[in-house]
Design brief:
Blueprint lengths: L3 H16 L26 H4 L1 H9 L9 H10 L2 H15 L1 H24 L8 H9 L9 H13 L2 H4 L4 H11 L1 E3 L3 H19 L16 E6 L6 E5 L14 E6 L3 E3 H11 L4 H13 L15 H18 L10 H26 L4 H12 L3 H11 L5 H22 L2 H8 L10 H5 L1
Parallel strand pairs: 2-4
Antiparallel strand pairs: 1-5, 3-4
Helix pairs in contact: 1-5, 1-6, 3-4, 5-6, 6-7, 7-18, 8-15, 11-12, 11-14, 12-14, 12-15, 14-18, 15-16, 15-17, 15-18, 16-17
C-alpha cells in the first residue's frame, strides 16, 4: 500500500494529468499527457479512479475545443488536487535532503500546471511566463543562439561539396542533404531494429561499465516502433513497464510512435534512437524502475512527469545520449561527418523549441513569423517549423513549461560530462545515488 506521501504524489500528478485530459494507462501518446509512467504494481489513486475523472479523460478537460467547465468543477469538488500538491510539499520539507528537494520541485511544478489549468477555464490569473519556465527548469527564460551549431553544419557541408551544389545557401544545402538520406516516417518501424541493436551494443561497451553491477541485467531497449498518421507530435515514447515475467520481475517495455509525415534523415534517425531509446529515455525509465524494485528510490520514480525539473534532466540525458553511446564528450569527436551533421541538426531543432517558446510567450510573436525564424535560423524542416511554432509552441502548457527544457537540459548535461569523469557523473545522472533533477544533480555532485 502507498503511504501518505506516496498517495499525495500519486493524486497530485494524476490529478493534474486528468485536468489536462491525460490518461497514463493509455498505451498511446495520443491519449497520454502529463504523467509519463505508472509502472508500479500499486492501485491507481482517487484522482484517476473517481467517476468524475473518466469524463475529463474522455473530453480532454481543459484542452477540449469546447471546455466542459461544469465537469471540471465537479471533479475538483470530488478530488482535492491542491491539497495533494500541498501534501507533497509538506512531505518534501519534512524529508529534507536530495529527495526532499526533488519532491519540493515536483510540488511546485504541479502547482504551476494546476494554475495553468485554472487559467484555461477562466478561474485564475494568467501564469507569468518566467514562473512557468523557472519551475520546470530552475532557470529564467532566455532566447537561443544557433550560430555555433549552424556554422559547424555549414563547415561540414561546405567541405563535402553540398554547399556549392546549393549555390551557397545553407538551408537549401541542408534540405538537399536531408533528402538524399531521407527515411520516411512510415518506414521507420522497419528500420528501427538494426539501429537500436547498434546503439545497445555501443551503450554496453561505453556506458554500462560505469554503472553498478545490479544495473547490468536491465533490458535497456525493450521497445516497439509504430508509425501513426495525423499525430500532433513528431514522436512519442510511451514507457509502459507493467508487464511482468513469471518470477514477477518487470519486462521494462515501451513503445515509440512516430509521425508518418516526419521528414528525417538516417543520421538524424540515429540520433533519434539514441535519444528516445538507448541510452536515452527508455534506458533512463528502465533504470528508474529497476532502482525502485531494489528500494533505492522512492515511489515518485514510477510516476515520472513532464514539465518538471526531472523532465529537463531527462531531455538533457537523451540529447547527450549519442555522445555517451560513442564514448565521447563532444560532437567533434564523432568520426562520421554525416553523423555529426545529423546530431547538430537535432540539437538545432531543440534550440528551435526553446526559441519558439521565447518568441511565442516571451515576445508574443505570431505563428507565421515564428515558423519563418525556426526554418531560417535553426535549419529545421518545414514540417518541424510548422509543428514547433503551432501545436507545440502555442500550447498553453507545453509552450511555456516544456519546450525550454530541451536546450537547458542539453547544455547542463554536456557541461557536467565535461567537468566530471564518467565514473562519477554517469551513476548520479541515472539515479544510482538517488533520484535527481536538473538542479539537485548539481548539488549532489
Amino acid at each position: 500500500m502507498l503511504n501518505e506521501l506516496d498517495r499525495n504524489i500519486a493524486n497530485a500528478i494524476l490529478g493534474v494529468d486528468t485536468l489536462w485530459g491525460g490518461d497514463v494507462m493509455n498505451p498511446s501518446g495520443m491519449g497520454r499527457f502529463i504523467a509519463d509512467s505508472w509502472c508500479s504494481d500499486h492501485a491507481l489513486p482517487e484522482a484517476y479512479t473517481h467517476p468524475t475523472a473518466a469524463k475529463l479523460r474522455e473530453t480532454g478537460a481543459v484542452t477540449a475545443k469546447d471546455i466542459d467547465r461544469d465537469s471540471i468543477k465537479q471533479y475538483l469538488r470530488a478530488v482535492d488536487v491542491p491539497g495533494a500538491i500541498a501534501g507533497v510539499a509538506a512531505g518534501a520539507i519534512h524529508l529534507g535532503g536530495t529527495r526532499g528537494a526533488f519532491l519540493l520541485s515536483v510540488a511546485e511544478c504541479c502547482r504551476v500546471m494546476f494554475d495553468l489549468a485554472l487559467e484555461m477555464i477562466g478561474e485564475g490569473d494568467k501564469v507569468p511566463y518566467t514562473r512557468a519556465v523557472r519551475a520546470s527548469t530552475g532557470r529564467d527564460p532566455s532566447p537561443s543562439d544557433p550560430s555555433h551549431d549552424r556554422n559547424l553544419v555549414k563547415e561540414i557541408l561546405g567541405k563535402a561539396g553540398h554547399l556549392s551544389k546549393a549555390g551557397g545557401d545553407i538551408l537549401t544545402a541542408v534540405d538537399l542533404w536531408r533528402s538524399e538520406r531521407a527515411v520516411a516516417g512510415r518506414d521507420v518501424a522497419s528500420k528501427s531494429a538494426g539501429v537500436i541493436a547498434m546503439y545497445e551494443t555501443l551503450t554496453r561497451k561505453n556506458l554500462l561499465p560505469y554503472l553498478p553491477a545490479e544495473m547490468h541485467d536491465v533490458p535497456m531497449a525493450n521497445i516497439n516502433f509504430l508509425s501513426i498518421e495525423n499525430a500532433w507530435f513528431s514522436g512519442s515514447m510511451n514507457y509502459i513497464g507493467r508487464a511482468r515475467n513469471a518470477d514477477g520481475s518487470p519486462q521494462y517495455e515501451a513503445t515509440y510512435e512516430i509521425n508518418a509525415a516526419l521528414q528525417i534523415s538516417m543520421p538524424e534517425f540515429e540520433q533519434l534512437v539514441s535519444h528516445e531509446v538507448v541510452p536515452g529515455h527508455v534506458t533512463t525509465f528502465a533504470f528508474m524502475q529497476k532502482l525502485y524494485m531494489l528500494g533505492r528510490v522512492g515511489f515518485e520514480a514510477t510516476v515520472l512527469t513532464m514539465n518538471t525539473r526531472f523532465a529537463t534532466l531527462a531531455e538533457g540525458i537523451a540529447n547527450n545520449a549519442i555522445l555517451m553511446a560513442h564514448g565521447v564528450t563532444s560532437i567533434e569527436e564523432l568520426e562520421d561527418p554525416n553523423l555529426r551533421v545529423g546530431v547538430l541538426l537535432a540539437l538545432l531543432q531543440d534550440q528551435a523549441k526553446n526559441q519558439s517558446s521565447w518568441l511565442t510567450w516571451g515576445e508574443e510573436r505570431p505563428k507565421d513569423e515564428v515558423a519563418k525564424v525556426l526554418r531560417r535560423d535553426f535549419l529545421v524542416s518545414e514540417e518541424r517549423a510548422d509543428k514547433l511554432s503551432g501545436a507545440w509552441g502555442r500550447h498553453p502548457l507545453l509552450g511555456r513549461m516544456y519546450l525550454p527544457a530541451y536546450k537547458i537540459g542539453t547544455e547542463l548535461i554536456g557541461k557536467l560530462r565535461q567537468e566530471h569523469p564518467p565514473e562519477k557523473i554517469l551513476p548520479v545522472m541515472y539515479g544510482c545515488s538517488g533520484l535527481v533533477d536538473c538542479v539537485t544533480i548539481v548539488d549532489l555532485l
